[in-house]
Amino acid sequence: MLIREELCVGCGQCQPYCPTAAIGFQGMKSVVDQDVCYECGTCLRVGICPVDALAEHPMVYEYPRALRKFFSDPSATHKATGIQGRGTEESKTNDVTGRVKPHEAGIAIEVGRPTLGMGLHDIQKISQALARAGINEIEECNPIHSMIADEATGTLKEELLGERVLSAIIEISVPKERVPVVLQTIKEVAKEVDSVFMLDVFSTLGPNLEIQPDILEMITDAGFNWRPNAKINMGLGRAWE
Ligand code: SF4
Ligand code: SF4
Predict the structure, then answer these.
(1) In angstroms, what is the span from residue 220 Cα to ligand 2's centroid?
(2) Domain that holds residue 106
(3) Residue 40: strand pairing partners
């Protein structure tokens, strides 16, 4: 985002709307720190500026800066997936897609939320740690997949490492017996990640609609507290085998 200096009257009204504090005063005018701004578009969308001084950055749709917008602006559709948002639809609608089978667990690592933001080099720290643990198949429909330069090592394309986004989600699915390795890996690499993240483990329900007890046990054994959540898309499910 940019602020047109010739228009800005320095009222400061836009500043509290920036979730990452990228807007500050420079003299009597507001300016956007271009390194910190992750192009979420919030300041422009709220329409708070009385003189219409906010304007999109000229490179906002140019690679690699465009990644900022695709990962941070909820109204932007990501080119890699064709869907709005940072993850894949499948994680939320496994009852429809059947991506994670009963003998598997889906894992999502959601970095940067809520609103703190993150550098993509932090995603690389996680993808490289997972690759070292033998897990290098990131969900194909996930936007992160198209950012990987080398699946064997989990290395991202170099030009992306300086970019910053609101949040990004690494999604994988593994056989259930691999869950402890994944959790231990995440626990270790968490010490190096310079942001907050949530760790999601998801599975199909058991025959009596119970959460699979062995998965809960693995989570507890790895030293995590689990909190059950469900996303129910009423009327969208269809049977799969
Ligand atoms: S686009 Fe988002 S991150 Fe950038 S200045 Fe506006 S509110 Fe802040
Ligand atoms: S709201 Fe508009 S005029 Fe006021 S500080 Fe922000 S950009 Fe400048």
Answers:
(1) 49
(2) 86-221
(3) none
For 185-207, write each residue's pLDDT tens digit.
999 999 999 999 899 998 888 88
As separate numbers, helices (DSSP H) first and strands (DSSP E) second, the chain gives 7, 11
Sheet holding 104-111, edge to edge: 168-175, 104-111, 197-202
* Domain assignment of residue 113, yes or no: yes
Residues with CB under 6 A from ligand 2: 3, 8-14, 30, 48-49, 51, 53-54
Angle at the Cα of 115 from the Cα atoms of 114 and 116, rounded to 5 degrees: 95
DSSP H or E stretch at residue 31:
strand 29-32
pTM (two decimals): 0.85
Give yes or no for residue 166 CB within 6 A of ligand 1: no
**Ligand 1, pocket-test mutation among 31, 34, 43, most atoms within 8 A of CB:** 43
Task: Please state the φ and ψ torsions of residue 178, each to the nearest 5 degrees.
Answer: -90, -5
Residue 133 lies in a domain: yes
| Total structural domains within the chain | 1
- Give the model confidence (pLDDT) of 224-238 as tens digits: 999 887 666 565 555
Polymer length of the chain: 241
Ligand 1 center from residue 62 Cα (angstroms): 17
